[in-house]
Every structure is written in C-alpha cells, then in structure tokens.
From TrEMBL:
Protein name, entry field: YkgJ family cysteine cluster protein
Lineage, top ranks: Bacteria, Pseudomonadati, Bacteroidota, Cytophagia, Cytophagales
UniProt superkingdom: Bacteria
Pfam assignment, any one: CxxCxxCC
Native source organism of the sequence: Mariniradius sediminis
C-alpha cells in the first residue's frame, strides 16, 4: 500500500471503531465530562504517526498542511496537542478542534478495555469519569465482562499494526507524531503530483 491507501485503511478502522464506541457509550452512559480537556492538556500523551495520517492528508487537501507544520515547529515539548483548544488558563477545559481526525489514542481512552492478569476486561478511563459517575462506572465495569459491548484497545492497535507496523510501533509525544505524519504526507504528495503532472507543462 502507498501512503494514501494506508491513510484510507486507518480511516476505515476508525469508522468501525466509532460504531463500537457509540454502542459502548449508549450502553454504559459513561461519557467525558462536558468541556473537560484534562487528558488532552497532557503534553506527554503518546501517539503513532500512522494514526495521524488521515489528519495530515485532510490538512493537505485543505491547503493547511504547511501552516500546521510551521505551528508545530514553534511548539516545545511542554505544549499540548495543536488541535486541542484550551478554554481555561490551566488547559484542563477545552475541546478538540478537529474531532473527526483525532488520533487513535484520543478515540480509545475512556471507551475501550484492556485485559488484566486475571483475564478480566478493565475499562481504560480517567479518575474524573470514575469519580463523577461511580455507580455507572461500577455497573459498566461488571457488564463489560458479561455482555456489554466495548472496543478492545489491543485489538484496535493490532489492526493498525497490520497496516504499517513501523508507523504504529514507534510511539512519541502527540505533536511529534502529527509533525512526522505531515512531513510524510507533504513529501508523498509532492512526488505524487510531480508524477501526475502533464509532461507538456514542464516544457
């Protein structure tokens, strides 16, 4: 697969995952708190390059890729994700400005499970959701081990590994992952467009 085909495959995985997440949220009623951006404000969130190819291609198609790359190059390791828009001074409140193109880590957190040493499913979520809805959380924690639908974190990552192991396996701070995805897409599109150019245009 070329880079564009890989991006389309990632988007296909995301679309299926979104359907699974919707089913889980509907069954559990466990959703992020309105306006909360606590997780997004953490600059140490790790991500892979592959999960941000759809964002990078979308930015390129909208003519925003180079501007986004310039913005990323001005950021330090202590800055949060560039598509997160904080609405509070401490960054703990805010919203995702490109929710459709958010990464895999952003989709899975609070809406997926991991398997513990005892072989039971554990919901991957944050303390804020647990403390705000303790009864809902306890019920969901039991029901996911019975019949409540919930996406598998490792299972979803396995699907990305099958698309491109290297671009999934290399985990890095989220802004670095976005930057590398943009660089790959810009390079790919430059050579793709050169190949598609009418030979008479170069005369």
């Amino acid at each position: 697969m070329n880079l564009e085909e890989k991006s389309k495959e990632v988007r296909r995985v995301f679309q299926e995952l979104d359907r699974e997440i919707k089913a889980f949220l509907g069954a559990s009623q466990l959703t992020c708190l309105p306006g909360c951006g606590f997780c997004c404000s953490n600059p140490k969130v790790s991500a892979s390059v592959l999960e941000f190819l759809p964002l990078a291609f979308d930015l390129y198609e909208k003519g925003k890729a180079e501007k986004a790359l310039e913005l990323l190059e001005s950021k330090s390791d202590s800055d949060w994700c560039i598509i997160y828009k904080a609405t509070s001074a401490d960054g703990e409140k805010g919203f995702c400005s490109d929710y459709q193109n958010r990464g895999l880590i952003c989709r899975l957190f609070s809406s997926s499970y991991r398997t513990n040493k005892a072989g039971r499913k554990e919901i991957i979520t944050c303390k804020k959701i647990k403390s705000a809805n303790p009864e809902l959380f306890e019920t969901a924690a039991e029901q996911v081990n019975i019949d409540m639908p919930i996406p598998s974190s490792s299972g979803t990552y396995a699907q990305l590994y099958n698309i491109d192991f290297q671009l999934t396996n290399d985990q890095m701070p989220i802004n670095q992952a976005i930057r590398k995805a943009l660089e790959l897409v810009l390079n790919y599109c430059y050579y793709r467009d050169m190949e598609q150019q009418d030979p008479s245009e170069s005369l």
